[in-house]
Structure formats: C-alpha cells, structure tokens
Prior knowledge:
The protein is α/β, with parallel strands linked by helices. 32% of the residues lie in helices and 24% in strands. The chain has helices at 20-26, 29-37, 79-93, 103-111, 194-203, 205-210, 215-221, 226-240; strands spanning 10-14, 45-49, 64-67, 98-101, 115-118, 124-132, 146-152, 154-158, 164-168, 176-180, 183-186. Strand 3 (64-67), helix 3 (79-93) and strand 4 form a beta-alpha-beta unit. Helix 3 packs across helix 4 (103-111). The longest helix is centred in the middle third of the chain and has 15 residues, at 79-93. 43% of the residues are buried.
Amino acid sequence: MPRSGRFGPLLLLVAGDPVPAVQARRGGFSTLIREAAGDLWPAAWSEVDLRTDAPLPDPADVSAVVVTGSASSVTERAPWILRGEEYLRSLVRAEVPTFGICFGHQMLGQALGGSVSRNPRGREIGTVPFEIVGDDPLLEGLPDPLRANATHVDTVSVLPEGARILARTALEPHAAVRFGRAAWGVQFHPEMDADVVRGYVEARRDVLSGEGLDVDALVASADDALAGQLTLRRFLSLIRSR
C-alpha cells in the first residue's frame, strides 16, 4: 500500500443522506459507516459534507478517505459534484487510500475519466449475490458469490483507463472496481445491514412495484450481508497494515 508510515485521521466525504425513515431510526451514512467499521479504525475520524462549501483538507493531512452514497446522481453535474470530483483526482494523484461507496464509486469513475449513466439493465436493490472476477487484497478470502446490500439506478457505464473489474452481478458489470494503486469503489453498500436495506425497499415500495419488482420477496430475502461489510473492513485493515 502506498504512503507507508502515516496513521492519522480518516476522512468521510458525505455526499447524501439515507432515506428519511432509515435516517430517523439509524442515523446518517457516516454513523452507519462507523458502526460497520467497528474497532478497525482506532484513530481519529473527520467529516466533510461535499454538498456544502466547507473546506476540503489537504490530501497530505488525511490517511484515508471514504466517500458515501447519495440519492443524487453524478450525471447532474452540480457544482458540489464537480468540486468533489476535482478533490478525488487530487487524492488519487497523491495515492491517498480512497474507498467509494455507490455514489462515491460512481464519482470516482467519472472523476478519473470514465462515464456514469442510468443502468440500462434496471434498478438493483436488496441483498444481491456478487461474482468475484478479479484477484485483489480487498476481496481476498471472501466467499464467492459474495452477498452485499445494494440500491442504485446508475452505473459506471465506461470505466476509466487502467481500472480493473473485481466483481459483477447479473445487473451490474462493474460492481467492484480498483481504480488505482490506492483507490477502490463498490457499487453496493457495505454499511447497510438487513434493517437498513429493508427500510430502503419499504420506502420505495410503490416505485418498485411499478417497475415490476416483487417487493415482498425483496423484504423477505434481505440479510445483513456480512461479506459485503467485510470489504469496508478489509479496506481499513489494508491501511493499518501498510
């Protein structure tokens, strides 16, 4: 892992909020991520909401970065999204270990020269099996198929140059990607357990039914998807072991 010898704050870049019912019951994405991380990051955490004008720290001042999910779309090209992409490019250039979750995964792909669009294969939501297709320390030793919790309609439709696919699903060909020496993205949500993903399904019940999805089956099949959670924990372990 690049940038050996440093152990300092881990920066959470917040790009959105969970659906209201989940946020009221369980807290925001930063809370869910810290809960999923457990004791694997004993040093300081810091947090910046990308949607605000809050200053972004110098890449040299953070040990690692996690970018959250969002109900927004990278395709909106809002000023805060463009600012976030510029910052992600600086992190990758500096080889700051970076982990993008769902929207964060898409933002990494777009920032580094790829393209994001609505997935022509349709919405992916619930607990989903992921096929591991590439060797990488992030997924080493995890079960295949890997089960993880997902909710998204966009996809990194064109990968940036040099990116390597690590996992895919029936609907998502770029479900986990290594974007650089120290940059990874996952299209799923390692911070979501069964309770959270069921909350998402219930919040979107009418939309999902209108798309022809079996909502009751999605609720019944949801689980904690601990293997998916392990990708976040593995990322943190890789940083600590460098």
